[in-house]
């Protein structure tokens, strides 16, 4: 291995590690399909109006887009069914 390729390989390894640590985010349509509800229901349950934060469907805002972490949604559902 030449010295010229070593930094390139190290950078590729770092990119692979950071990609492996990323969680694939779900879209509103994904969550609606998972919960078997409409997309408007999902949007409605991400808003704060009249609800405490713990009652809202946990989400991440990326500009105008709403995304969901699959594991956080699962934990939210588990808490809701435990009530």
Can you walk through the features of this model?
The protein has 83 residues and is α+β, with helices and mostly antiparallel strands. The protein has one domain. The chain has a three-stranded antiparallel sheet with strand order 1-3-2. Strand 2 and strand 3 form a beta hairpin. The chain is globular and about 35 Å long.
List the helices and strands and how they pair.
Blueprint: H1 5-21, E1 25-26, H2 28-35, H3 39-44, E2 60-62, E3 65-69, H4 70-82
Antiparallel strand pairs: 1-3, 2-3
Summary keywords:
three-stranded antiparallel beta sheet; 4 helices; single chain; 83 residues; alpha+beta
Look at the helices and sheets and give the structural class: alpha+beta
Shape: globular
Give the helix proportion (percent range). 40-55%
- List low-confidence stretches: none
Query: Which band does the percent of strand residues land in?
Result: 5-15%
Largest sheet: 3 strands, antiparallel
| Count of individual helical segments | 4
Summarize it.
Helix content is 53%, strand content 12%.
């Amino acid at each position: 291995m030449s010295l010229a390729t070593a930094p390139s390989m190290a950078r590729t390894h770092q990119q692979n590690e950071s990609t492996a640590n990323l969680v694939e985010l779900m879209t509103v349509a994904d969550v609606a399909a998972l919960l078997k509800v409409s997309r408007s229901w999902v949007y409605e349950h991400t808003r704060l109006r009249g609800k405490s934060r713990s009652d809202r469907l946990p989400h991440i805002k990326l500009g105008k887009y709403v995304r969901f972490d699959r594991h956080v949604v699962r934990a939210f559902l588990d808490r809701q069914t435990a009530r």
